[in-house]
């Protein structure tokens, strides 16, 4: 659920603000006349909110030249290792054991030094009943990664979605919820210990107005974020890095300001937090200026916080569009991927770049948008060469 922009223009005849949910490519996907209550019809990760009369998407950039080929045989993880950062991808447990797609595992493990379980380690899948955990799928992600000498990012310990029915409908009071949250986090983090490089402890807790309703946790448990991070540190010790993770907070905007307010407050209260995950669900035709991304990373560095790019994908064409992802657009997509990596490399506190999936065949936003570095046949797209080149300092990227 998202709150509308209260500064939006009043809808005709209603006397109430009108809001439009805007896909990350700038297209309106749901219109609501008033700003009271839940908004349906749009994915929480794909839509932000703006004044219904606000300007449309950023015009496409001029065509970019072809991307130079990377050195033969060079992989993304080899190039990233030379720069001391992780390059990662979210994976699903079906892919790890998928017999019908033998390319999935070899391509993912050859190119990526870090993996995140897309769903297998979330509260719902891992804790289906109050007194029972289901570890098999999350265990499989860790085992497959360790077999390929990959680090694992744990995702996630506390979120307002992907929760089990017993938790959502248990009618628990604040004290009970606090205990459930602590017990869950202790169980999960203790099981995997230092096998996890980091955990996304709390996921997507704010909007542009501050903390947002996040059933079952907020507003019933007002300090749930502090409770979650404290429990994670108790269970994992100082070597497991603890992150807050969110979307639409990459540049300098109202939402990123609320993320900054949240984490700076945690620092001042002594709540254990090591970094912020910036998701980067972007579109080729509409995205934050990279100069703003750099400024946002800098203010996190000033709080002594790491930044990880955690869920990167770039839609080559808008979702539902008849437009084709032409060679020119593929090159532009590749250039933007490279510029994002370059922005991370320029920030001393940016330690990881991770895509949300890696092949267009398996992406949460639909294969037709072609958002990932490998195509639906597991072949590298120009984005792979572009990222390798910038990691090897052979591509002169410019700010967008």
Automatic annotation (TrEMBL):
Recorded GO MF terms: endo-1,4-beta-xylanase activity
Stored SUPFAM superfamilies: (Trans)glycosidases
InterPro entries, alphabetized: GH, GH10, GH10_dom
Full protein name: endo-1,4-beta-xylanase
Catalytic activity, EC: 3.2.1.8
Record domain GH10: where: 70-390
Recorded family membership: Belongs to the glycosyl hydrolase 10 (cellulase F) family.
GO annotation, biological process: xylan catabolic process
Keyword field: Carbohydrate metabolism, Glycosidase, Hydrolase, Polysaccharide degradation, Signal, Xylan degradation
Catalysed conversion reaction: Endohydrolysis of (1->4)-beta-D-xylosidic linkages in xylans
